[in-house]
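User: Hey, quick favor. My workstation is busy. Could you predict this chain's structure for me?
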Amino acid sequence: MMTCKLCGRNMASEIIGYCKSCIVEHWKELETELLGLHARSRKKFGLPPKIPRKGIPCALCANGCRIPNGRLGYCGLRKNENGKLLHLAGTPEKGLLKYYYDPLPTNCVASWCCAERDTRGKSNLAIFYGACSMNCLFCQNWHFRFLTKEMTSFYSSKAVYEKVTDDVACICFFGGDPAPQLLHAIDVAKLVMESKKPVRICLETNGLENSAMLKRLANYVIESGGTIKIDLKFFSPELSMAISGVSNERSYENFAMLASMLEEARHDCFLVASTLLIPFYVDEDEVFKIAKFIAELNEDLPYSLLAFYPAFLLRDLPTTSREQALRCLRAAKLAGLKRIRIGNVHLLS
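Assistant: No problem, here it is.
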């Protein structure tokens, strides 16, 4: 940790160098430096330094890449090959992922309210996708980048479906993030629902999906009685750019779209929001604004405030303090939400 290089008052991560206030208030002056940090972190894994803007369009996620000939899209899974969009992974035939069986109850973000919260003796089939549409400097699962770089762990949607054994109660698509490979996830969900197996379909995501595609998957989630968990990381767009490398505007648009589908859901945990309480950056003011957005959609939507653990490039930050978590909890209540939980309490300092 260090004091902010600009104001000299507030605390900041040494990697970022600037405090929340200075990032928000002086983004234009800091933009080139902070996006350069993202570019360097991505170069190590062979990923494009920024969202490409000159070439053929890819509309599979919110980033809206336009990929130059011979180059990759931001997620690393799409390539412009002589003017044609080549899918290196993320199709029904070829998902880049790892999978494992996780005995219930799991440490899922929505485990406190999901329909399987009291289930014992069964498992969750966890589908860990090896790509992402963001570049979070604090990523807890940053190792997904090795999957993107190596491009060796492929499973078709049918191969994943065949992993749905009789003791599987639910499937969760996460990562990385499912957004760049949503076509694959949709096909897995379709196969499961067509089989009539009593399995819930769940999604854990940053919310940057193509909205029409997300709605298709959401219909399977609703039909199965599953849950969609969207990580609303920041309210301030400048913080999203500085710390996650891209805009998260679509996350909020998609969350609102899913909230409009609540009446179709079979239970009260169809849609869950979460926010990681990053010390010095995600404070009670940030949480209040996020919670206010959620409450204006529906005050009964579940909201998980997650304790932070230092990972990836933000290893110099401490874990979330109990005081910070309680301040954020009060802020979320003040914003009008009724169902709030502090998660990862064992990490609180």
